[in-house]
Give the backbone structure.
Amino acid sequence: MGGVKCSLVVLVSQLLSLTPAAAQHQPSHNIRWWEAALAVGAIGAASIFDRRVDDWVQARRSAHSNTVARAFRIGGGPELVFGIPAGILAAGAISGNKNLQRSGGRVLASVVTAGLATGALKEITGRFRPDNTTDQYVFRPFSNHDAFPSGHATIAFALATSLSAEIHRPWATALLVAGATGTAWSRLNDHKHWLSDVVAGAAVGVTAANVMEGRWRIFGLGPPEFLISPHGARVEWRLSF
Protein backbone atom coordinates (compact mmCIF):
# COMPACT_ATOMS: atom_id res chain seq x y z
CA MET A 1 0.00 0.00 0.00
CA GLY A 2 2.89 2.37 0.73
CA GLY A 3 4.19 1.90 -2.81
CA VAL A 4 0.78 2.75 -4.24
CA LYS A 5 0.64 5.98 -2.22
CA CYS A 6 4.14 6.97 -3.34
CA SER A 7 3.28 6.28 -6.99
CA LEU A 8 0.11 8.34 -6.67
CA VAL A 9 2.03 11.31 -5.26
CA VAL A 10 4.55 11.10 -8.12
CA LEU A 11 1.76 10.84 -10.72
CA VAL A 12 -0.11 13.83 -9.30
CA SER A 13 3.09 15.90 -9.16
CA GLN A 14 3.86 15.07 -12.80
CA LEU A 15 0.33 16.00 -13.87
CA LEU A 16 0.49 19.31 -12.03
CA SER A 17 3.87 20.17 -13.51
CA LEU A 18 2.38 19.71 -16.99
CA THR A 19 -0.70 21.85 -16.34
CA PRO A 20 -0.51 25.54 -17.35
CA ALA A 21 -1.07 27.57 -14.18
CA ALA A 22 -3.07 30.27 -15.97
CA ALA A 23 -5.66 27.74 -17.13
CA GLN A 24 -6.44 26.50 -13.64
CA HIS A 25 -7.95 29.55 -11.94
CA GLN A 26 -11.03 31.33 -13.20
CA PRO A 27 -12.69 34.45 -11.70
CA SER A 28 -14.12 33.56 -8.30
CA HIS A 29 -17.82 33.24 -7.55
CA ASN A 30 -19.12 34.92 -4.42
CA ILE A 31 -21.43 32.60 -2.48
CA ARG A 32 -24.70 34.29 -1.52
CA TRP A 33 -26.83 33.58 1.54
CA TRP A 34 -29.52 31.85 -0.50
CA GLU A 35 -26.99 29.45 -2.02
CA ALA A 36 -25.84 28.51 1.47
CA ALA A 37 -29.49 28.10 2.47
CA LEU A 38 -30.07 25.74 -0.46
CA ALA A 39 -27.12 23.60 0.63
CA VAL A 40 -28.43 23.42 4.19
CA GLY A 41 -31.87 22.54 2.84
CA ALA A 42 -30.42 19.74 0.73
CA ILE A 43 -28.69 18.28 3.78
CA GLY A 44 -31.93 18.52 5.74
CA ALA A 45 -33.81 16.79 2.92
CA ALA A 46 -31.22 14.00 2.87
CA SER A 47 -31.74 13.46 6.60
CA ILE A 48 -35.33 12.39 5.92
CA PHE A 49 -33.93 9.27 4.27
CA ASP A 50 -31.20 8.58 6.83
CA ARG A 51 -32.91 5.68 8.55
CA ARG A 52 -34.11 4.03 5.35
CA VAL A 53 -30.73 4.32 3.64
CA ASP A 54 -28.97 2.95 6.72
CA ASP A 55 -31.31 -0.05 6.83
CA TRP A 56 -30.89 -0.65 3.09
CA VAL A 57 -27.08 -0.49 3.19
CA GLN A 58 -26.77 -2.67 6.29
CA ALA A 59 -29.15 -5.28 4.85
CA ARG A 60 -26.77 -5.65 1.90
CA ARG A 61 -23.52 -5.47 3.84
CA SER A 62 -21.23 -8.44 3.23
CA ALA A 63 -17.63 -9.54 3.46
CA HIS A 64 -17.15 -8.27 -0.10
CA SER A 65 -18.63 -4.84 0.66
CA ASN A 66 -16.41 -4.59 3.74
CA THR A 67 -13.34 -5.31 1.61
CA VAL A 68 -14.32 -2.65 -0.91
CA ALA A 69 -15.05 -0.20 1.92
CA ARG A 70 -11.58 -0.75 3.40
CA ALA A 71 -10.03 0.14 0.04
CA PHE A 72 -12.07 3.34 -0.29
CA ARG A 73 -11.69 4.37 3.35
CA ILE A 74 -8.07 5.33 2.73
CA GLY A 75 -9.37 8.29 0.69
CA GLY A 76 -10.18 10.04 3.95
CA GLY A 77 -7.16 8.81 5.89
CA PRO A 78 -4.35 11.14 7.02
CA GLU A 79 -1.62 9.18 5.19
CA LEU A 80 -3.09 9.91 1.76
CA VAL A 81 -4.75 13.23 2.55
CA PHE A 82 -1.57 14.83 3.91
CA GLY A 83 0.86 12.66 1.98
CA ILE A 84 -0.25 13.95 -1.43
CA PRO A 85 0.08 17.69 -0.72
CA ALA A 86 3.33 17.08 1.18
CA GLY A 87 4.67 15.17 -1.81
CA ILE A 88 3.65 17.96 -4.20
CA LEU A 89 5.30 20.56 -1.99
CA ALA A 90 8.45 18.46 -1.78
CA ALA A 91 8.51 17.97 -5.56
CA GLY A 92 8.11 21.71 -6.05
CA ALA A 93 10.88 22.51 -3.59
CA ILE A 94 13.29 20.00 -5.13
CA SER A 95 12.57 21.13 -8.70
CA GLY A 96 12.38 24.81 -7.82
CA ASN A 97 8.96 24.98 -9.49
CA LYS A 98 7.07 27.79 -7.73
CA ASN A 99 3.76 26.94 -9.40
CA LEU A 100 4.05 23.36 -8.13
CA GLN A 101 4.79 24.66 -4.65
CA ARG A 102 1.71 26.89 -4.73
CA SER A 103 -0.37 23.94 -5.98
CA GLY A 104 0.79 21.86 -3.03
CA GLY A 105 0.03 24.76 -0.70
CA ARG A 106 -3.50 25.11 -2.04
CA VAL A 107 -4.20 21.38 -1.72
CA LEU A 108 -2.83 21.33 1.83
CA ALA A 109 -4.77 24.47 2.78
CA SER A 110 -7.94 22.88 1.37
CA VAL A 111 -7.78 19.72 3.46
CA VAL A 112 -6.68 21.57 6.61
CA THR A 113 -9.48 24.15 6.29
CA ALA A 114 -12.02 21.40 5.63
CA GLY A 115 -10.77 19.41 8.61
CA LEU A 116 -10.95 22.37 10.99
CA ALA A 117 -14.47 23.27 9.84
CA THR A 118 -15.63 19.69 10.26
CA GLY A 119 -14.06 19.40 13.69
CA ALA A 120 -15.91 22.51 14.84
CA LEU A 121 -19.23 21.28 13.42
CA LYS A 122 -18.81 17.87 15.06
CA GLU A 123 -18.27 19.51 18.44
CA ILE A 124 -21.18 21.91 18.07
CA THR A 125 -23.75 19.39 16.81
CA GLY A 126 -22.83 16.29 18.85
CA ARG A 127 -24.81 13.97 16.61
CA PHE A 128 -25.11 10.28 17.50
CA ARG A 129 -23.76 7.73 15.04
CA PRO A 130 -26.10 5.06 13.62
CA ASP A 131 -24.31 2.35 15.61
CA ASN A 132 -25.32 4.22 18.79
CA THR A 133 -28.99 4.90 18.08
CA THR A 134 -31.83 4.05 15.70
CA ASP A 135 -33.09 7.64 15.75
CA GLN A 136 -31.32 9.82 13.19
CA TYR A 137 -32.28 13.03 14.98
CA VAL A 138 -30.39 12.58 18.25
CA PHE A 139 -28.00 15.47 18.90
CA ARG A 140 -26.10 16.32 22.07
CA PRO A 141 -23.94 19.41 21.51
CA PHE A 142 -20.45 19.46 23.00
CA SER A 143 -20.50 15.75 23.84
CA ASN A 144 -18.25 12.96 22.61
CA HIS A 145 -20.70 12.16 19.80
CA ASP A 146 -19.31 13.31 16.48
CA ALA A 147 -21.25 11.89 13.54
CA PHE A 148 -22.07 15.17 11.79
CA PRO A 149 -20.53 15.76 9.37
CA SER A 150 -18.46 12.80 8.22
CA GLY A 151 -14.78 13.64 8.56
CA HIS A 152 -13.72 11.04 5.97
CA ALA A 153 -16.22 12.40 3.42
CA THR A 154 -15.19 15.99 4.14
CA ILE A 155 -11.49 15.38 3.65
CA ALA A 156 -11.95 13.08 0.65
CA PHE A 157 -14.07 15.65 -1.20
CA ALA A 158 -11.76 18.50 -0.23
CA LEU A 159 -8.78 16.60 -1.62
CA ALA A 160 -10.66 15.54 -4.77
CA THR A 161 -11.97 19.05 -5.45
CA SER A 162 -8.61 20.72 -4.91
CA LEU A 163 -6.68 18.22 -7.01
CA SER A 164 -9.32 18.47 -9.72
CA ALA A 165 -8.87 22.25 -9.84
CA GLU A 166 -5.10 21.85 -10.04
CA ILE A 167 -4.93 19.05 -12.60
CA HIS A 168 -7.71 20.56 -14.69
CA ARG A 169 -8.48 17.41 -16.69
CA PRO A 170 -12.04 15.98 -17.08
CA TRP A 171 -10.87 12.37 -16.68
CA ALA A 172 -8.98 13.24 -13.51
CA THR A 173 -12.03 15.04 -12.11
CA ALA A 174 -14.23 11.99 -12.81
CA LEU A 175 -11.78 9.63 -11.10
CA LEU A 176 -11.26 11.90 -8.10
CA VAL A 177 -14.99 12.45 -7.53
CA ALA A 178 -15.63 8.72 -7.91
CA GLY A 179 -12.97 7.99 -5.31
CA ALA A 180 -14.38 10.57 -2.87
CA THR A 181 -17.88 9.17 -3.38
CA GLY A 182 -16.53 5.70 -2.64
CA THR A 183 -15.00 6.99 0.59
CA ALA A 184 -18.35 8.50 1.59
CA TRP A 185 -20.12 5.22 0.80
CA SER A 186 -17.60 3.28 2.91
CA ARG A 187 -18.75 5.23 5.98
CA LEU A 188 -22.34 4.16 5.33
CA ASN A 189 -21.27 0.55 4.82
CA ASP A 190 -19.25 0.62 8.05
CA HIS A 191 -22.34 1.87 9.93
CA LYS A 192 -20.44 4.92 11.13
CA HIS A 193 -22.49 7.67 9.49
CA TRP A 194 -25.93 8.62 8.29
CA LEU A 195 -26.56 9.68 4.69
CA SER A 196 -26.88 13.36 5.69
CA ASP A 197 -23.51 13.15 7.49
CA VAL A 198 -21.68 12.28 4.28
CA VAL A 199 -23.72 14.76 2.21
CA ALA A 200 -22.76 17.50 4.67
CA GLY A 201 -19.15 16.33 4.63
CA ALA A 202 -19.08 16.54 0.84
CA ALA A 203 -20.54 20.07 0.98
CA VAL A 204 -17.96 21.25 3.53
CA GLY A 205 -15.09 19.65 1.63
CA VAL A 206 -16.09 21.04 -1.76
CA THR A 207 -16.65 24.50 -0.29
CA ALA A 208 -13.34 24.59 1.59
CA ALA A 209 -11.39 23.47 -1.46
CA ASN A 210 -13.06 25.91 -3.83
CA VAL A 211 -12.42 28.79 -1.44
CA MET A 212 -8.75 27.86 -1.01
CA GLU A 213 -8.43 27.41 -4.77
CA GLY A 214 -9.76 30.94 -5.31
CA ARG A 215 -12.81 29.70 -7.20
CA TRP A 216 -15.36 30.70 -4.55
CA ARG A 217 -15.62 33.43 -1.96
CA ILE A 218 -17.87 33.27 1.10
CA PHE A 219 -19.26 36.76 1.64
CA GLY A 220 -16.09 38.14 0.04
CA LEU A 221 -13.65 35.98 2.03
CA GLY A 222 -11.02 34.47 -0.24
CA PRO A 223 -7.77 32.54 0.21
CA PRO A 224 -4.42 34.02 1.21
CA GLU A 225 -3.03 35.86 -1.80
CA PHE A 226 0.23 33.91 -1.80
CA LEU A 227 -1.69 30.71 -2.58
CA ILE A 228 -2.93 32.20 -5.84
CA SER A 229 -0.31 34.76 -6.85
CA PRO A 230 3.47 34.90 -6.44
CA HIS A 231 3.05 38.50 -5.22
CA GLY A 232 2.12 39.31 -1.63
CA ALA A 233 0.61 37.37 1.27
CA ARG A 234 -2.67 39.19 1.72
CA VAL A 235 -5.98 37.76 2.99
CA GLU A 236 -9.08 39.69 1.98
CA TRP A 237 -11.96 40.02 4.45
CA ARG A 238 -14.93 41.74 2.89
CA LEU A 239 -18.65 41.38 3.41
CA SER A 240 -21.01 41.39 0.44
CA PHE A 241 -24.80 41.09 0.65
